[in-house]
Amino acid sequence: MIIGIDASRANRQNKTGTEWFSWHLIEELKKIVRSDDQVLLYANDKLVEELGEMPNSNWQEKILKWPPKYLWTQIMLWRELRRNPPDALLIPAHTIPLLPVRKKTKVIAVVHDVGFRRFPDLYKPIQIWYHEITMRRIRSRADVILTISNFSKKEIIDLYDITPNRIKVAYLGYDSGEYFPQTQDNIDQAKQKYNIKSPYLLYVGRLEKKKNIGNIAKAFVLARAGHDDLKLVLAGAGGNQYDEIKKIIADFKLEQEIILTGYVDQADLPALYSGSLAFIFPTLYEGFGLPILDAMACGTPVIASNTAPHTEVGGEAGIYADPKSPEAISDAIMKVAENDEFRAKVVESGFLRIKEFSWAKTAADIYKIIKSA
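Above: the chain's sequence. Below: its structure in token form.
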């Protein structure tokens, strides 16, 4: 069986959730794909570091050069699929060619979430337009639609009227070799690098409207009423409506209390998680919420939205609050800050919860789906 995988996202230098999902999936598949299967990794540039290390001769990178920034999938990948169609094509990040792909090729497309359809006001018009076109193409052409939570499966069914048996769920995992409680020296080095002082709350992700940064900032203001030494670290690159987020910080005069780190090196995240009082993730919409697992693995309490998929991922180990209520988020922060026994119990529950997730399991589930397609 010839399996083609779009490795372009996994090959990006600055990775966020979707890119790390692609990277970990490919690396774990290298360990389990049978010797009678051939795997082709499609990319725009030469695969870098571990990604470019092929486990055996059955694995091959296919570099499809395309200098422009956009339309690599629609032109170069599509042309390669027409010329040399694989038996199965795995697209880890939503976008499949709009032009016809030979029926010989079974297309497995991963749809992480459909938030652009549920909450269009949280996205730019161009994002909505592109995702909508892509989603319609997936609905008509994908042989299997893969998603990352039961919540996302239900959303896809409800919003696109797709037959449930066409949609498969494979939970995400976390990197146990990277995410675990760090030493105080590692924590201190990361804090110094990003100019952070303890105690601090941590958010990790893009700084955009759907991440609910405004209400996180307002909750932080309320929590500081009883803990005026508390800081808030927003770790991530600016996204949609980043200027509005900076205005909220200025309006509340929080320039010295809220630390904007920009994109954080992956190697520094475990230490930032480990050193934080709590991880704050009351976002408005997610397909899964991977940082929830990363934080729990580092021994950090997680304050998340009281909605799916946050509750689906965190289970009984999460602390949940209404994401639209700064007061509720603040109450959760205060509970962690003022009750050491409660905090320790939550941390221990988190360690138990993460045992149910791994990238090895994710890859095994997806490989089984590819083979059955």
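The chain has a mean pLDDT of 94.
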